Amino acid sequence: MARILVVDDAVFMRTRCGKILRDAGHEVFEAGDGAEAIESFGALGPDVVLMDITMPTMDGISALKEIVARDPGARVIMVSAMGQQSMVMEALKAGAKEFVVKPYQPEQLMAAIQKVLG
Question: Whose CB among 7, 32, 34, 114 lies 3.0–4.6 Å from 51's, allowing a Cys bridge?
Fold first, then answer.
């Protein structure tokens, strides 16, 4: 069982993702934007962060950079409908361990989590 922080501005996406993860036995926490993600990361110390890219207040790439600056070993998986190669490359260069494109199947999400957890 892992502690997973799900970061997405869309409540339905956090709910859907949270259900998949809870059904797999994980402990799930939620944040609605990048700024909240940084705060929650510091408070919770999750094993994995699932981070959307496009969000208000602070986008996922900016939040990713801040989280990795605070904890270089942070395991962040970017989850976004923006599957363009440039965004994938930017996220990976910024420290993301994996990238999952929406819409995803539960098994795709779980495979990414297993990969980053080792």
Answer: 7
